[in-house]
Amino acid sequence: MTAAATLPAVQTSQPVSDPALERIPLLDLRAQYHAIRDEARAAFDMVAESTAYAQGPVTKTFEDEYAAWCGVKECVSVNTGTSALHLALRCLDITHGDEVITVPMTFIATAWAIYYVGAKPVFIDIDPVRRTMDPAQLERAITPRTKAIIPVHLYGQTADMAPILDIADTYGIPVIEDACQAHGAMYQGRKAGAIGDMAAFSFYPGKNLGALGEGGAMVTNNPKYAERARMLRNHAQPERYFHDEVGYNYRMDSLQAAMLSLKLKHLDRWNLARAFRAVRYKELLEGLPGVTLPTHYPDAQSVHHCYVIESDFRDDLRAALTAANIDSGLHYPVPLHLQRACRLLGYAKGRFPHSEALSRRCLSLPMFAELTDDQMERVASTLHQAVQTVG
Ligand SMILES: Cc1ncc(COP(=O)(O)O)c(C=O)c1O
């Protein structure tokens, strides 16, 4: 696919007098909002008039729509992706003394959920090319205390789920997908969220499907998990003001649900626009000395939540982008096993070399559906110039 001539026309930021100096953001949420503003205002007004603000009927509508979109039976909307992961672990009755296997190259919330139930995060390294859980390391990490496995679909690319599910199946261990960065990603014909026993999504504003604040969802094909999660998210009350166990207020606001329903209608198109931009970046950046581009797999379609290149000269490249008024990101600069919050787990530096290398080398370039070809060319030419001086 050649992207240059085929980038779909989309609304862009306000032009300034000198486009060469215009800031290029990592993500342009205002451009996205402007494209749907009239519909959004009507939806907000509908919620305001309804007065059903906390988990009203629009929340249920969004749950039905999102479950259908993912190809699962059940969607339990919640207030954040972190809560969705937490509820998934509670549904499995995971508790003190249990272990949950995941990767250190993820956002910290993957580990928070494990800590919240009192269990111990057990890390295994990533595959350095795919940048997700390395299935070859999984079996060795399993102990009689292992109660769940959480592969993370990092940057919009699913983990290599088939071997992970095979091993999990052999040992009878449930798999929870951390799909917080992978709305619509495909793996061997299935959508992220429809592959494991349960999955967690985040609707944090910057996600491919983002709320106008916080939001999340736990999805599953198992009605028992869904029923338990629905109860736990609403103060664990099977009947109003009766509480049989400790619950949470993890409900999704109606305003967020209305916004998410509206954005869901556009999500396939926005994901496709990101895919075109990933192809265009590849055209523009291929062969850049000392720079590794993301690898894509024929059986696993990424949704390009982040477009992450790698380089030993990452900091120099980033400085060059900053000097050219181009925003960039680091996802993530410190892997979880080296975070101070996780120090009691006792992992030493060097233990997970691929995660550590990625955290040193990763550089997220601007990526969003409204990114223009001119903007991408400016990003690319800045990087081309930078590699001349840093190499
Ligand atoms: C991989 C991953 N897991 C979990 C989360 C937590 O989601 P939230 O920020 O909605 O709590 C995020 C969101 O940033 C994430 O990227």
Secondary-structure blueprint:
Elements: H1 29-50, H2 57-70, E1 74-78, H3 81-91, E2 99-102, H4 109-116, E3 120-123, H5 138-141, E4 146-149, H6 161-171, E5 176-178, E6 186-187, E7 190-191, E8 198-202, E9 216-220, H7 223-233, H8 254-285, E10 291-292, E11 307-311, H9 314-323, H10 353-361, E12 362-365, H11 373-390
Parallel strand pairs: 2-3, 2-4, 5-8
Antiparallel strand pairs: 1-9, 6-7, 8-9, 10-11, 11-12
Helix pairs in contact: 1-8, 2-8, 3-4, 3-7, 8-11, 9-11
Task: Name the descriptors.
391 residues, alpha/beta, Aspartate Aminotransferase, domain 1, Aspartate Aminotransferase, domain 2, three-stranded parallel sheet, 38% helix, globular, disordered N terminus, binds pyridoxal-5'-phosphate
